[in-house]
Amino acid sequence: MSRSLAGKLVVAISSRALFDFEEENRVFEEGDDRPYMQLQLERLDQPARPGVAFPLVKKLLAFNTGGQQRVEVVILSRNDPVSGMRAFRSALAAELPIERGVFTRGRDPFPYLRSLGATLFLSAQEKDVRAALQAGFAAARVYPDSATAADRHPDEIRIAFDGDAVLFGDEAERIYAEGGLAAFQAYEIERAAVPLPAGPFKSLLQALQPLQEMAADAPMRLRTALVTARSVPAHERPIRTLMAWNIQVDEAMFLGGLDKADFLREFEPDFFFDDQPGYCDTAAKVGPTGHVVSGVKNEVKERN
Q: Which of 24, 31, 80, 303 is deepest in the core (most CB within 10 A)?
């Protein structure tokens, strides 16, 4: 009988998001992948340094205890199979129990997300992230140069999410873009009791709930935060939406346009997800960051 990933939190991740392949990637971007393949082959016995998402992956895999596989990590990459060997060897050297991978040698990898039943897709390629989001998957473009501090809070994984266009749809964000702050606040006050539509990362937050509810003596704990530019009186609708979804977050920050990076510095997330490049740029200086390339803000960027 074939094995299945059903019922697990499945993270599909590119090799460049998991490991620091930035030097090798510069060779790859020159256009001909043969020198890149040769370089990876020459470095086959040289484990790659951890990449921006490495701490997140390592901590998520720590939930696989007591004979239960709650989390599955699969390398999903545009790399060729030869380069994939180095990725697997690097994972083995880092004691990451990763046993599955799909390598497409330049072809779009995101179609395999459905076969994997992926909960989350992390990649350094914006094109792949956009396609995955359009197909209905939680996906983010990682900032490979994000600041990392893998040794902080080693027994707890912390994940922070923006609200609109990330956890929630971009309905309210479109009102703000079209009518400004006053129109946005009036709209949100009128609909305070009406749940917001689901955003691309609702499914991930939902899938994290069983991990968050594990016993206090579990080897890894999970803490989540909503970090949003919203402020009073637009704070109520997100809270009521999470209640309607029967989903809890540990912290909620309604910052009214304050720099999120200052607050993320205190929360110390293992990963932060936001749809606005400006917030991502400053957040990446504090910790691992992923750009959720969805919503009206990114449509404007695409048109320009």
A: 24
